[in-house]
Amino acid sequence: MPDSRNWFAPTPDALRRAFAASRRDGSWLVWRQRRLLNFASNDYLGLAVCKGVRRAAAEAILTHGLGSGASRLVSGDDLAFHHLERALAEWKGYEDCLLVGSGMLANIGLLSCLADRHCRIYADRLNHASLLDGARLSGARLRRYAHRDLHMLAKQLAHDPPGRRIIVSDGVFSMDGDCADIRGLIRLAEQYDALLLIDDAHGIGTLPDPRGLTAMQRQAGHPRLIEVGTFGKAFGGYGAFILGTHALIEGLRQRLRTMIYSTALPPALADAMIEALRRVRKGVRTRHLQRNIARFRALAHDLPLAPSSTAIQPLMVGDNERALRIASKLRASGFYVPAIRPPTVPSGTARLRITLSALHTPAQIEALAARLKIILQA
Ligand SMILES: *Cc1c(COP(=O)(O)O)cnc(C)c1O
Questions:
Q1: Is 202 labeled as catalytic in the residue annotation?
Q2: Would strands 195-199 and 165-170 be described as parallel, antiparallel, or unpaired?
Q3: Is position 233 annotated as part of the catalytic site?
Q4: Catalytic residue among 41, 174, 308, 357
Q5: Among 317, 319, 321, 322, which residue's Cα sits nearest to residue 354?
Q6: FRET label pair with 264: which of 98, 107, 198, 377, CA 20 to 30 Å apart?
Q7: Regarding beta strands 120-124 and 141-145, do their DSSP bridges make them parallel or antiparallel, or are they unpaired?
Q8: Ligand 1 residue neighbourhood (C-beta within 6 Å)
Q9: CATH of 51-282, one of 3.40.640.10, 3.30.70.660, 2.40.128.110, 2.40.420.20
Q10: What is this structure's pTM?
Q11: What is the mean pLDDT of the chain?
Q12: What's the pLDDT tens digit per position in 78-129?
């Protein structure tokens, strides 16, 4: 007899994902009473621990309280949200901007709002899970193209009958650290009358132009382009933002269910993110990060690194068990680096996902590279 109490079978040990309750302290992580160097954080610029950002958040909480108390459309709206939206739109070069609770909520809400079953969504195979979930929830017909393969995408677009289309891609890919060809994607969007949604959660704040990949490729503000960014990564906070034309953003203010039916962000977070944006714009931390990336790539040039020039430096291992063994040896030597395995990445491509931060010192990066060489040769 089937038994509904057993629906949720435990995950086999080999695939189990474990929480690792810890506290972070700059570039360190305190885990099971041990201090490990953290190469597993998306706090790329160290803004999560920046004094000025923390002070802005603390003062806002002490003055105005913590929660917003309601959705923005009820009574949870706050001047700080509008201020931050205007600053982001201006900095990123778009007509308008809308804040959302998180990147996950932004992508799920956006795709399910823009697309319906009469629409086709074309998605890079390695897109973030939130983009895939949004596409599925929308009910649109979903086509996935091989990673960064614009020839395959062009064939799919040419093959399908005309109709509403959205092309969807990460900007900087979260598990590979490589970058989408924004110009090429825009060209196809123009040719086949599609919209282009770019999620640059990992590119904004970290690339040589801190405005991110669409700015690097001079496409920011293109009328076919919708861009998602998050505060959880380089901004060191939490939350997300959507950028696009006035018409698009106004449409979303009326229809984006993950914003309308969800409590607004804590206003103090917006105050903190205004401070974070000020620092991102200065570019000093991004230049530190860029120097650390160059330093690590030079030191680890003979290791099986993925071809990435961003803060995400995956060390390709292949075998799941071997990836776990290397991660465990690194922990024993004082380095926290996560082993990323399927289903987060395609099977046979288990890897160590090393993320670099502006907070890492040259000596810390040298120590990681040296330890990796010893462990991989063993
Ligand atoms: C982290 C991430 C998200 C999710 O953002 P959250 O604000 O953490 O929910 C979405 N897309 C990409 C590409 C990401 O890396």
A1: yes
A2: parallel
A3: yes
A4: 174
A5: 317
A6: 198
A7: parallel
A8: 102-104, 107, 128, 130, 170, 174, 199, 201-202, 230, 232, 240
A9: 3.40.640.10
A10: 0.96
A11: 95
A12: 999 999 999 999 999 999 999 999 999 999 999 999 999 999 999 999 999 9
